[in-house]
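Entry 14. Structure prediction run on the chain below.
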Amino acid sequence: MLRVLLTLLLAICLTVAGELLLKAGMNEVGEFNFQWAVLWNTFTNWRVLSGFALIFAGSIFWLVVISRIELSVAYPMLGLSYVITVLASWLLLQERLSWQKLVGSLVICLGVVLVTQG
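Output returned:
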């Protein structure tokens, strides 16, 4: 079970890193729309491409996890990605960290503990 949990943590970390790269790339590109120039700038941005690659890699490890434990246990544990994203966005993207985000993150962690205990 420890191996599965570590694999899940790896999947979460890869996905969160990918999301952070997507956001950093879009901060460079600007507001997204479906105009050709914006599409080109978005999908040739190395951060956006790297973000998608990391999210895909996280998905591969997610397949490992759901092949070994119940989805009803594994999926709620993905909620930890929200907590990690809040903290990483604050640290790396200088996004605002409010008390609401902290309390919400704590509630998510408590929910994950409850689900894994059942």
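The chain has one domain: 2-117.
Filed with the rest of this week's runs.
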